[in-house]
Write a structure and sequence with these properties.
There is one protein chain. With 166 residues, the chain is mainly beta. The chain is built from 1 helix and 10 strands; from the N terminus they run ββαββββββββ. The chain folds into 2 domains: 37 residues, no CATH class; 115 residues, Sandwich (Immunoglobulin-like). The strands form 3 sheets. The chain has a 5-stranded antiparallel beta sheet with strand order 3-10-5-6-7, with no helix packed on it. A 3-stranded antiparallel beta sheet has the order 4-9-8, with no helix packed on it. Strands 1-2 form a two-stranded antiparallel ribbon. A hairpin with a 4-residue loop joins strand 8 and strand 9.
Length: 166
């Protein structure tokens, strides 16, 4: 006897063990439904939670940036939009309190290798500013602050990707 399995509002008749031949259509339909549902959870260009250390500026002209945020890169040929969340933590070698900044970066591009555009909103002040290159690389510039010991960023992003030849 088959079993009804629900994914979203769709119900699929899934075969039970020992069903006679001819059950593959129900199993295939269910597998496609699961695949479609999972595509809304994680897309091919989404960025899972990632952590990276940032370069600390030292006042020399060659160490002012912008610098790439390792792993914070979008495929300019397929990503048409994204929404990213970030958390930056800046620690000091002296008694200066740790600084934290969190926020969102929303961006869009043509999905054909053209320019990207971003908008950043955040809470806190770690002295960071973000930009993005035409090929989808998120970059940053940091304000120089005395006695900075370490700067970490955590980020994740959900993308809207070009489908097929749209």
């Amino acid at each position: 006897m088959s079993k009804d399995l629900q994914i979203g509002s769709n119900i699929y008749e899934y075969p039970s063990p020992g069903e006679p031949a001819g059950w593959s259509e129900g199993a295939s339909d269910w597998a496609q439904g699961v695949t479609d549902a999972l595509a809304t959870v994680q897309g091919p260009n989404d960025i899972l939670l990632t952590s990276s250390s940032l370069v600390i500026p030292d006042g020399t002209p060659e160490n002012q940036g912008p610098f790439n945020v390792n792993g914070f890169l979008f495929d300019s040929a397929t990503v048409q939009g994204f929404e990213a969340q970030f958390l930056v933590t800046r620690t000091y070698t002296d008694a200066t309190p740790k600084q934290v900044e969190s926020g969102d970066i929303m961006g869009n591009g043509t999905g054909t290798g053209g320019d990207f555009f971003i908008s950043v909103s955040s809470i806190g002040d770690t002295g960071i500013s973000f930009s993005i290159t035409a090929n989808g690389q998120v970059q940053y510039v940091l304000e120089e602050r005395a006695n900075t010991q370490n700067i970490q960023i955590k980020f994740k992003a959900k993308t809207i990707d070009q489908l097929g030849n749209s």
